[in-house]
Write a structure and sequence with these properties.
- It is a single chain.
- The protein is of the alpha/beta class and 272 residues long.
- It has a single domain, classed as NAD(P)-binding Rossmann-like Domain (Rossmann fold, 3-Layer(aba) Sandwich).
- The chain is 49% helix and 14% strand.
- The strands form two sheets. The protein has a seven-stranded parallel beta sheet, sandwiched between helices. Strands 5-8 form a two-stranded parallel ribbon.
- The chain starts with a strand and ends with a helix.
- The protein binds NADP nicotinamide-adenine-dinucleotide phosphate.
- The site of NADP nicotinamide-adenine-dinucleotide phosphate has 29 residues, from α1 and α3.
- NADP nicotinamide-adenine-dinucleotide phosphate (NAP) binds next to α1 and α3.
Amino acid sequence: MKRKTVLITGASSGIGKETVSYFAHKGWKVAATMRDTSRAGQLKDLPGVAIYRLDVTQPHIVDETIQKAWDDLDGIAVVINNAGYGTLGTFEGANDDQIIRQIDTNFLGTLRVIKALLPLMRERREGTIINLSSMAGRMGLPLYSLYNASKYAIEGFTESLYFEVRPFNIKVRLIEPGPVCTEFYGRSKEDIMPPDHEKYIAISQKVAHFYNITFKYASAPKVVAKTIFKAAVSKRRKLRYKPGFQVHVYLFIYRLLPLSWFQKIIRVITNI
Ligand SMILES: NC(=O)c1ccc[n+]([C@@H]2O[C@H](COP(=O)([O-])OP(=O)(O)OC[C@H]3O[C@@H](n4cnc5c(N)ncnc54)[C@H](OP(=O)(O)O)[C@@H]3O)[C@@H](O)[C@H]2O)c1
């Protein structure tokens, strides 16, 4: 890779923030983008890091910011589509706004950033597009129907994009973490209130309890940052990268067993 320049979305916290720091310490020039630049904190002081305001749900801002960062850095070799959050709760309880916002941020936001960058990368015949998927992009998990939908969409989109950008020397990657210890489970989480039905309320409580336990074994964001870096510098065409141990365990069981058995295991461990 000739240029060591990277643009990261959702850099104000969690995996995004850690990844900015990781690349900066490796000597890269980093465009750290976030929707609220007052949350940049110590990232501002890292050598080679420039902060940009970017809300992935605002198409004009995406186009302007990508072009500005491209000009400032004299090209962007790697883009990391990290901005995203999880909506948790029963689908019946979700309103239209919650449904649209989840898909708009996690899926359409990623598409907007790629659309703005692709002609520039194609012209240079160099680029790596790294999309944050999730374990939830590979298997349906209870109360994550909207989040699951957004990450499955990322998976299908990225698998297909691989073919058409390959002739231009543009690589695509999927990062599929299991649980990671970030604000995903706190400030960023959007809870859907269950409809007033005893079964929905019971499922919501049991599943919330299960996720709280899973969270105790969550990986550190640095584990994901390291994997993202590996995916960025690799010369291979490998599509999928899985940071953290939990995703390996879940995916192993998911692939090994018939789906009905896997679903039974999830029902038993979540007690639903
Ligand atoms: N944590 C996990 O267990 C886990 C597992 C698998 C995959 N992931 C994925 O990893 C990515 C990062 O999540 P995280 O765990 O680091 O959570 P996080 O700490 O909550 O970080 C999420 C980041 O996304 C940003 N964001 C949200 N909406 C945005 C928008 N419209 N425009 C621009 N930025 C926006 C947030 O910005 P604000 O600070 O402004 O809110 C924040 O910087 C997400 O795509 C998530 O789905 C996480």
